[in-house]
Amino acid sequence: MEDMLKTLMRRSFAASRLRNGIAVLAIALTAVLFTAITTIVIGTMESFTLTMQMQKMSRSDGELRYMTAAQFEALRRSELIESAGLRMPVAYLDNALRHNIEFDVEDETQAALTFCMPTHGTVPGGPNEVVASDTALRSLGVEPEVGAEIEIAFSVRGQDYAFPMVVSGWYEALNSQISVMWASTAFRDSHPEIFCNTYREDHNMTGTYFSEFTVHSTVGLEENLRGLVRSLGGEPEDISAPDYLAAVVNRATNVQPSLFQTGAVIAFAVLFMLCGYLLIYNVFDIAVMQDIRRFGLYRTIGMSRRQVRMLINRQALWLSCAGIPVGLLAGFFVGRMTLPMIMGMVATEYRYLAASVSPSPVIFLTAAALTGLTVFFSTRKPVRAAADTPPIEAFRYVESGGGRRTSRKSALGASIPRLARFNLGRSRKRTCFIILSLMLCVVLLNCAGTAADSMDVEKETAFMIRTDFAVVNAVSSSNMKGFTRRAEALQKKTIADIAERPGVTGGTAVYKNTAEDANVTYDFGHSLTEEAYVDEYSGLTFAFDDVYNSYGLGDDGRMICNVYGIEEAVLSRMDLREGETDAHALYEKMSAGEGVLVGVHVDRRDMSLIPRLELIDVGETITVYKDGAPVMELPVLAKAALNGDDVEIGFTVNGPNVIGGDGLFLYLPAAVYETLYDVPSVYKYSFDVEEGYETEMTAFLEDYMEHVDTGINYLSAQTAREGAEGTRRMIRFVGGFVGLIFGLAGILNLMNTMITTILTRRHEFASMESVGMTRRQLTEMMVWEGLCYAAGACLSGLVLSVALNLTLVRRLVGSMWQFTFRFTLAPALLACTALLVISAAVPVFALRLFHKGSIVEQLRIAE
Amino acid sequence: MDIVRTQNLKKYFGKGSGRVRAVDGVDLCVEKGKLTAIIGASGSGKTTLLNLIGGLCQPTEGTVTVDGVDLGTLREDELTVFRRRKVGFVFQDYRLVPELTVRENILLPPALDGSLPDAVFFEELTGLLGLGEKLDCFPGQLSGGGQQCAAIARALITKPSVILADEPTGSFDLKTSQNVAGLLKMTTEICHQTLIMITHNPQIAQLADQVVHLQDGRIVK
Amino acid sequence: MECVLRAVGLKKYYGSGDTQVRALDGVDLEIEQGKFTAIIGTSGSGKSTLLNMLGGLDVPTEGSVQIDGTELAKLSGEQAAIFRRKKIGFVFQNYNLIPVLTAWENIVFPLSLDGQKPDLAFIMEVVKLLGLEGKSDTLPNNLSGGQQQRVAIARALASRPAIILADEPTGNLDSKTSDDVMGLLQMSSRTFRQTIVMITHNPEIAQRADRIVRIEDGRIVV
Fold first, then answer.
1. H-type helices in A347-360, by residue range?
2. What H or E segment, with its residue span, contains residue B163?
3. Chain-chain contact of A408 with C109 (C-beta, under 8 angstroms)
4. Which pLDDT tens digit goes with each residue over A803-827?
5. Cβ–Cβ < 8 Å for A22, A315
6. Residue C7 φ/ψ, nearest 5 degrees
7. What values do phi and psi take at B99, rounded to 5?
8. Partner-chain contact C43 B20, CB within 8 Å
């Protein structure tokens, strides 16, 4: 029995090649959609994780610090831990030029977790062997090669040490600022005096054990770590406790997708499922309808419903097996190709971006499952129709649907366009499906178009930078770092080299206070709470006020604030809002010591000052303290609205965050700044270039960064603009892609319907031709039918586009500051034109291909 | 022994002014082994009557009993099995599955049932109908008459209780009509089958043991 | 009386050699204007094939058909269609009405295809004659078989064709309705002096015509 059914299945399957082809195409298309999105989602997560890990130079799950040797051993044996690396920090080397070299004792596990394994040479074995990065070695004055001899110098607990070492291996540095040089435990064993554990007494970390580790499961990691610390006999929370053990979860490794991202993914998945459903349902519906008489026959001679269902389900399975793999493959490549574009949008701040996605089985399994699910849902109704239609009705089946209507007001003559319009009423459901798909295409394309057009590139650029170029220390280009230390200041030589380049105009250097400038503080009567915490990155203590603004504190417990020393040119570019708004006058007054400019952050949507951060008004006075004693009184002369360029550069805010926090942003003339601060540090050099010199300057800076001063980075108005343009391009791309998919679905449905129409209304066409309808008139009628579908879609699409754009899109776009709503109907009109043309063309070709045979032959098709 | 019996059988379609009384109170008895011809003009209800007997549609009123079983008591699934095992159909347009060979077409009903056909019977039957050499051809390769013979074989293979033939010779010219009709009568006799045949051809009707004249849904004399 | 239709030596053969089917084997036929002719034959006698030839729906293997002086075989597909809608009216066994058009719209369909404005007075007369008043706005699915056939007949009459070809017009109707329809055909023929050729296998029906032509095995028999 099974054989017979199988034979039947196989043969009837093979006989309808065109229909199968369309079905496979539909399924494949759906698979492409799902695979593409899965690839992009997983790829984005992967790429981000890797990038952030590389930024943080660690791919561990977490880190424990300040352990004793016994605690470390216990850690290793803990059930929670998968693998633990050994790290005993020694000190930063003193003798490295412009590059921070952290010297540690490590084992291979640790090195592997922190990207320090040598790519050339071997791991250190003897007590005088080290592995270091190429940048580190160069900064020590040698070329990176195995066997190179170097000298390292550092101090621990006030003692200076110097050793000759040999390079056993080296690796390419991930980070231009800092890298790790490590020796094996043999070094520790031969220098026990360096490594005695005095943490309990002086909180000195040399001699303690650090460990970065991976765990079996990251679920509830923070909780587990605290428990782990306690089980090791340490104190996880009180910093000042003698047995304090720091337990840190590596956020870079454990990226939590934001609610927005998860929501977006789900929205897309549902959208694709809907599209796939529309597509596949129609194909199968038509297929069953074409074969309804055949199924009627089967049922007549005794095929049970279950057997009929099995027949169709099996065929659907075969079609899926053909369509899904192709779709998976195509979808993966589509996803992989678009991944860099999408990452480019989200990652305007990251310089080293690793966009990679590996063909993991998760991607394919998920996509295949989703597609299979869609196929299943789409085929339920058609299957039921085939199995449950009573055999007799099946034989009498002529698709003339809409039987509810019994009469209508007659027109004088039956014109062909009207006839076409009425024909659409035969299968209301199918008509709706097609119009729906096409309409969604139009609407989506237009929404994407409006959103993209609303992307205000100039606004975004203007926020990021006020000049053509700005050169900063590389730390300023990472929002996990930012400018905080004197050592990160720009070198005079670098500034000079840039200034003397041809075409450079209006170059200005800007000073900023650092963590080391904690001796200069400010007071203006703002009360702070007792709560305090220490920022890990800058080392400064922070306190809060009653609205939970945070303030960095200086040596004397007063606010350190974010203080900038600027030249007049810089002031003239700023956005003065209150008080003395004439830049020249203001600068003169400030230079005379008459007061200071206070800057306030803005709500980027409308560039209004954020009330919570308006800590002081024009006219109030700020007292400046140095080394604990008041040295200056500065009345507030004016307030300015701050953009990214005023605060640090671009979108980086971490520098000011970890220095002054939410505290006052003060702008002083450079001369005044120099009197207050002992070691004025230039953190940025801004300049414009004359027309036509941009490319040259960009090339120069790129080259300079690579070969001369590796510590710098730059932002140009051009790159900022390009970043924004990238976002716009991405919106267009994604929106266009999805819209296109729906359009394709609609057109495929249209084609399918047209072909079916021609095949099943053969008899009717023949009788129309017998009473005198010419071929041309028949074509005309079909073309009108196609146009009716398109017209329905276009009309509803246009209306819906306008409605959605003016409501939903406007609101969405309004909530994002980078956008200024700009309405456009162009994409919809374009899509409509294309749809009209295609809908008119499809019937012509379908007729040519399928309307064959003489009238007599077609009339002979029995009822 | 009555193999088929209908009592006050009625089948109406639609309602109101458009109501069609296809079968309007038919009492019919068909003896086992006999050939019954149902004749009448188009629209007289012949096909509907046949469909009712074959369990292809449900009566509006009245009962149909085939081989002792009241069809009205059977559920949809049971009706399907009933059709498979107890009824053989022959249609005017043969209705063979084009993708299956003649042999496979004939063996389709038993295959659906999961049972193996009687090989000896199969050979006999196909021999009688002149299909011996054409078993592995596809329906499209046979003449109209040949296809109808295959359909007849398909109807007979499960040794059903009754064969229902709806204008089996309707598509043929005179000569083929007579051939096919003759074969039909012969094979059903040899297999001790009961045949109920619809025809509008009086000459074919003459071959029958019992002629039922249907007009406007009722039996007339 | 003039000859509306003239067929000479019509032959239609299918296939070749042993299995050749000779549907028409040399048919000569002349139909006079205004007459109601019935062509009677059993299934497979070739009557349907003959009708298809006469209507230009199929091309003969040999022989010619002339309607109103025009040689059908000389017309291209497009020309044939245009000729049909002006000069030939068809009535089929299964009515073949367009399901999405009302009765009225079906009736004027061939005229609309021709771009002609319907002669309202004439069509109203036809509608009245065929008892279709009040049904003009009804869609076919709400009409009985007899009513549908009457609409089909009206459609055939509407363009005042040279000849109406009816293929088993009462084939799908019960006896009473058959009777009605035949009466209408007769009446139409007389009232409008319309030439009608009808094929049937039913001798009783054939009796209603002015003239009976018998066909058997592809040939006209006397």
1. none
2. strand B162-166
3. no
4. 988 888 888 877 778 888 889 999 9
5. no
6. -115, 135
7. -85, -5
8. no
Q: With contact defined as beta carbons under 8 Å apart, do C155 and C111 qualify?
A: no
* A366-397 tens-digit pLDDT: 889 988 888 888 888 888 888 877 776 665 55
Q: Which residues of A touch C107 (CB under 8 A)?
A: none
Q: Please enumerate in sequence order all residues whose Cβ is within 8 A of that of B216, keeping only pairs 6 or more positions apart, or say none.
A: B21, B24, B43, B44, B45, C174, C175, C176
Amino acid at A734: V
Chain A residue at shortest CA distance from C172: A863
Name residue A565's beta-bridge partners: A511, A668
Tell me the sheet residues that pair with A131. Answer: A169, A182
Using only C-alpha atoms, what is the Rg of chain C?
17
Phi, psi at residue A825, to the nearest 5°? -110, 0
Report CA torsion sign: C35, C40, C43, C47.
Answer: negative
The pairing of strands A712-716 and A596-603 is unpaired
To the nearest 10 degrees (0 to 180), the angle between helices A259-290 and A292-300 is: 70
Dihedral (Cα; B110, B111, B115, B118), 10-degree rounding: 60
- What CA–CA distance (Å, rounded) separates A34 from A329? 11
A667 sits in which H/E element: strand A665-669
AA letter at B98: P
- Which pair of structure tokens corresponds to residue A531? 């709560």
d(CA B83, CA B80): 5
The rounded Cα B195 to chain-centroid distance in angstroms is 7
Instruction: Kindly state the tokens that stand for C177.
Output: 């309705």
User: Are A356 and A46 within 8 A, CB to CB?
Assistant: yes
DSSP characters for A800-832? HHHHHIIIIIHHHHHTSTTB------HHHHHHH
- Number of C-beta neighbours around residue A690 at 10 A: 12
Do A407 and C78 lie within an 8 Å CB cutoff?
no
pLDDT in tens, B115-137: 887 889 899 888 888 888 888 88
The answer to which of A736-745, B159-168, B169-178 has the lowest mean pLDDT is B169-178
DSSP per residue, A425-450: GGGHHHHHHHHHHHHHHHHHHHHHHH
Chain centroid to CA A761: 52
pLDDT, mean of residues B75-88 = 86
Mean pLDDT of chain A: 84
Q: State whether residue A707 sits within 8 Å of chain B by CB.
A: no
For CA atoms A392, A397, A401, A406, the dihedral sign is negative
For A662-701, what is each residue's pLDDT tens digit? Answer: 888 999 999 999 999 999 999 999 999 999 888 999 999 9
B118 at A interface, C-beta within 8 A: no
What's this model's pTM, rounded to 2 decimal places?
A: 0.68
If residue B183 lies in a helix (H) or strand (E), which one and from where to where?
Answer: helix B174-190
| 3-class secondary structure, B78 | helix
pLDDT of residue A863: 33
Distance CA A646, CA A168 (A): 46
Which SS3 state, helix, strand or coil, does residue A793 take? helix
Tokens of residue A298, six digits = 């089967």
Nearest by CB to A302, which of B83, B97, B98? B83
Q: What is the pLDDT of residues A634-671, one digit of tens each?
A: 999 999 999 989 998 888 888 898 898 888 899 999 99
Q: Do C57 and A859 touch (CB under 8 A)?
A: yes
Residue B11, phi then psi, degrees to nearest 5: -140, 115
pLDDT at B91: 87
- 8 Å CB contact of A854 and C84: no
CA dist C58 and A273 (Å) reads 50
Sheet holding C219-221, edge to edge: C88-91, C163-167, C196-200, C36-40, C211-216, C219-221
The dihedral over CA atoms of B73, B77, B81, B83, expressed in degrees to the nearest 10, equals: 70
Cα gap A575→A463, rounded to integer Å: 11
Of B77, B89, B97, the CB nearest to A304: B77
